[in-house]
Every structure is written in C-alpha cells, then in structure tokens.
Design goal:
Elements lengths: L10 H4 L11 H5 L6 H68 L5 H23 L5 H29 L3 H89 L14 H142 L4 H119 L20 H11 L10 H9 L7 H13 L1
Helix pairs in contact: 3-4, 3-6, 4-5, 5-6, 6-7, 7-8, 7-11, 8-10
Length: about 600
Amino acid sequence: MAFLPRRNTFKAVLGCHNGNHPHSGRKLDMFGLNRSVKARLAASLGLCIVLLIVVGFMGLMSTRNSQEALENISQKNVKPLTALAEVRSELLRSWVRIVAQQADRDSSTVNELQQKLDQSNSRIDTAWQKYSTGIQSEREAAEANALHEHMVELRNSIERNVSLMAANDFDGARQHSIDTLSTQYNQLAQDIDALFQTNNRQADTSFQQRSQAYATTRNIVIGVIALSVLLAMALAFWLIRGIMTPLGKAQEMAQSLSEGDLTSRIDITCRDEFGDMLRSLDAMRHRLTEVVTSVQRNAGSVQIASREIASGNDDLNQRTQSQAANLEQTAASMEEITSTVRQNADNAAQADTLARNVSERAREGGNVVSQAVSAMGEINTSSQKIASIIGLIDDIAFQTNLLALNASVEAARAGEQGRGFAVVAAEVRNLASRSADAAKDIKALVEESVSRVATGTELVNRSGQTLEQIVTSVKQVTDLVGEIAVASREQSTGIDQVNTAITEMDSVTQQNASLVEEASAASRSLEQQAEALIREIAFFRHAEEVGHPQPPRAAQPTQTRAKQTTSTHAPKPATSHSARATSHHSAKASAPAPRNTSHSEVEEWESF
C-alpha cells in the first residue's frame, strides 16, 4: 500500500467525510465528481482519449503528408524516369538492329527490320506519352520539346537508312549511319541525360521540402506527447489518491475475514461506488456468518450421506464386475463362432473356385462336341458326294453296256469281218456289267455309311444339347456357390463387427467398473472432507445472534439473496459420473439440507 494516504486527508475529495468539514469538496460536487467514481474515471479517461485523438490526428496528418510526398515522387519523378529509360532502351535497340542489318547486308530481311522498328516506335510513343504527363517545370518542358524534335529527326533518318538498305545500297546506308544517324543519336542521348538530371534535381528539391515539413511536424508531435504524458501523470496521481483510501478500509475488512473474525464492523461514510462496495462487504460478512452457521449444521448430514453413497457404490461395483465376467465369456464364445464362420467362408470360397473350374471344363467339352457335330456334318456331305459319283459311274457302266450290245449287233451283221470286234464288245459288256455290280455294291455301302453318319450326327447333336444343359446347370451351381461365398464373407464380416462390439462393451464395462471404484473412493474422500470441513469451519468466530447490516444503495434485500442461494445450491441425487464433483460442490453448499432429501438419495442409490 505505497500510495495509501492518511485517512483524514482526502475524505472531502472522496465523499468519505465525518461531518467535520461540510464545505470541503464543494467544487468537485458541482461537477458530480465527488459522488461517483465512474464520473471521475470517465472524466480522466475522456481527457486521455482527447489527448490520444489529438496525437493520433497529428500522426495521421504526418502520415498523409508522407504518403502524398511519396506519391508525388512516384508520379512526377520515378515514373517519368522509368519512361525516359524505356525510350533510351528502345532507341538503343533500334540502333543495334540497324547496325546488325548493315553488317548482314541481306536486303530480304529489311521488311522484318522495318516491322521491328515500327514496334519500337510504338513503344517509344507510349513511353513518351507517360513521361509528358508528368512534366513539372517550364525548363523541363523546353528540354522535352527539344528531345521530341530530335527524336522526330532521328526517326526520319532511320527511315532514310532503311530505304537505302531496301534498295540494296548497304554502303550508302553505312555511310549515312556514320554521317547522320550517329550524330543524331548522340544528341538524343545528351537530351535524355539532361532530362534525367532535371528530374533528379526536382526530386532532391521535393525531398528537402518534405524533410523540413517532417521536422516541423515531429517537433509539434513531441510537444503534444510530452504535454499528454504530464496530464496523464497528474490524472493518475489524482485517481490513485482518491481510490486508495476506501480500498484501505476494504483491505482491513478482508484482513479480518482472512483471520476468521466475523464480528468486525465498518464505519461507512463514503457516498460513491466505494461506499456501496464497503456496504456490500459488510453484507457479505453478515451472509458469510449465516453460511458458516449453516455449514456447521449440515456438515454432519453430508458425512452421513457420503457413507451411504460409498455403500451403494460398493454394491454397484460388485454387480459391474459380475457383468464384466459375463461379457468376457460372451466374447470368448463369439470368438469361437467367428472362427467357425470364417472357416465356412474359406470353404465356400474354395467351392466357388472348384465350381468355376468345372464350369470352364464343361464349356470346353461343349466346344469339343460342337466341333464333332461340324465334322460329322462335313463327313455326311462328303458321303453324299461319293454316292452321287458312284451313281454317275453306274450310269456310265449302263451306257457302256448298251454301246457294247450295239457293237455286238453290228459285228454280227458284219459276219466274219466283225467277229474280232464282237469278241471285244463282249469283253466290254462283261467289264461294264462287273463295273455296274461293283458300283451297286459301293453305292449300297455308301448309303449305309450315310445313314450311320446321319444317325451319329443326330446322336452328337443330342450330346451337344445335353452338354449345353450341363454347362447351364454348372453355371447356375457356380452362381449359387458364389452367392453362398459372398454371403459367408458378409456373415463373417458381420460376426467380426459383433465380436468387436462385444469387445468394446467389455472394455466399457471395465471402464465403468473403474469409474465405480473411483466413485466409491470419491465418496470416502467426501466423508473425509466433510470431517475436515467440520474442523476447518471451527476457524471462524461469530456471535450466536447475528444482526442485520446496513444494506447497500440500490441492492436487493439480504433475505431475498439468501433464498436464491438456497434454491441454487439445493442438493441433487448423486450419480456415478458426478461422484468427484460431489465433494467439491458439497463443500460450497450454503443452505441446510433436509433429512428427507438424504433418505431419498439413499433409496435411489439402492434401486440403482
């Protein structure tokens, strides 16, 4: 308390007087500063805010001036210099291109050179337009006009030089460059250098002006800051002197309360917010006396309730452990079921694989039968062709026999002269007859073979149809086995999830058992804390009959706040999840707990 003044020095200033100085502090009362700390703080803070606004406004003005200076330098010096640099760069690039073209001595690329020169001229015009908008003085304008005239002359000379190169007169173009272009380009470079120097001088002048303005603004801001600091120190000293006196009384009251003395009183004479604070402290002392008395009466009830809660928690702990054992057995059974279902799923997958292999083999057999049917059809076709050929041979033999018969008749008519011919005709008839008999036999055999081939073809077709039906059936079996395999996998996944859920339930049950044990320990700790509370509450000293203190200004009655506190801290049934919080809130209970509430809590714990 280094700033704590003597008690009788500033009572008039604070409104904390004892009637001996009725005329002191009258000037402050005229402004309402003697009756309200809020008014004093508002006045002090208002003055500080005004000073801050002044300083900030001056800083903003200085910043704005600096911004304007920077913008002026950027718009009127930096950007024009950049534009001049671009003009110089484009002119140099054009000069280099002309020299390179003269060195190449290729008239076919003059048009390309002219296009590049036109592009450079366009960029030069754009840069010159940017520069001309930032001219600041008549001298700079004169230098700029001279530069523009020389630049026009240089362009005309460049066009003349390009026309000479287009006419394939490279020697003349080179001589023209030496005599005219180099002189004009050097003059143009000197003009650009002069404009650079002019802009640099203008930038230096602007910098000196802004530096002087900055120094003036800086001195003014320093003076205002110094004045603001002095005023702020004076206000701080005045506020500290006006605040520490009532805080000293509040400190005395707090010291008495910290020593357990609830019988001390405060002589309150202040008329401001600090007076209200002191009255509230006195009301708090009175209320604390009531709370201590109530806590002493209810600590025994809390101790009994904590014992009953501990008993209920022990019973709940036993039942929770039994439930955990049952869940462990269930989890073991589910693991066995999971293993069995997983094995069934594996078997179903193997059966699915075998069924797919059988289906593939049946499909291959069907393809082989189809090929056999095609081969039998080709054999049948060939047999029919053979039968046709044999029929043709039979017809030829019949015709040969007829011809031989005619030849015999003609030989008989010829007599002795045709006897030899008759013998030959007879032999031919014998051969034709034998050929006809052989053809008939072969035809009979071929017809029998064709009949058997047709029968075989029909049987093969039936076999193919049967194999197709077998393939279809095997495919259906494969689909069913695949569905069984998918269902087995889904069943295995579902049982795994059920097993995981049971494992989690087992873990949660174990955690619940741990929480119940913690709740039991917390209830026992609550009992110990209730005993400690009885010992600690004996620290406070208070009278048996407590009087009502003077209520503070604009405050609610003490009895109303007592009812609100009683309703706020009414005891609630404890649960296993709030066992730890019970000991903390029971230590803060400020109203007596009825007996029937304690019995209802015990009944709820027993039913749980």
